[in-house]
């Protein structure tokens, strides 16, 4: 009889511990990560309302941060990071969720930069200095930084189009960009910073490139 009572007591104690552990679960977790169109999309499920932060790191270096204001409990929230900041840092990066008692991570996460950034046959490598830019004027595409080097047939990008900007030429008259997986050029006056939630108006590169 004593042995039976002891077994029942241990079972109740184990159930109590299990309930306590469940109550201490993270208030938010990372549920999925996808990469496409040169972006990483991190989906977070918030069990409770609160302010959360998702960080993108590489070898301990903070690359980007995104904030989540979870105004509704038991709901999914998605943040976006731009793969252009990785440059040649791949293959492994870390994605960390914190804030409000949350503590979740995926490290390493290995995106296929060449595929998701749409690299063409020349396999364009994005330098870590590349940033997002927005066309403030319609822009004709050039295959080199010279007025006589227009792409044929002529291709014109519309105002508001987002591109990745590598840097200016030696004369500051043109900017090298990555578009449709290729290295191309546009006139400098047609480009401005990208003020979306990913780039936040980061200044365009100033170091001359070829």
Describe this structure in words.
Helix content is 12%, strand content 43%. It has helices at 2-23, 113-116, and strands at residues 28-36, 39-46, 50-58, 61-70, 75-82, 93-99, 102-109, 131-135, 139-140, 156-157, 162-168, 174-179, 182-187, 191-193. The longest helix has 22 residues, at 2-23. Strands 13-12-11-8-14 form a 5-stranded antiparallel sheet, with no helix packed on it. Strands 4-3-6-7 form a 4-stranded antiparallel sheet, with no helix packed on it. The chain has a 3-stranded antiparallel sheet with strand order 1-2-5, with no helix packed on it. The protein contains 2 helices and 14 strands; from the N terminus they run αβββββββαβββββββ. With 210 residues, it is mainly β. A hairpin with a 2-residue loop joins β12 (174-179) and β13 (182-187).
The biggest sheet, with number of strands, parallel, antiparallel or mixed sense and barrel status, is: 5 strands, antiparallel
- The Rg value, from CA coordinates, equals 24 Å
Fraction of helical residues: 10-25%
- What percentage of the residues does DSSP assign to strands (E)? 35-45%
Total number of helices: 2
Overall SS class:
mainly beta
The helix-strand sequence is HEEEEEEEHEEEEEEE
Distance between the termini: 86 Å
Number of strands: 14
Q: Which overall shape is indicated by the principal axes computed on the Cα atoms? A: elongated
Rounded average pLDDT = 78
Cross-sheet strand order for the largest sheet = 13-12-11-8-14
Can you tell me the residue ranges where pLDDT is under 50 for at least 5 consecutive residues? 1-24, 119-123
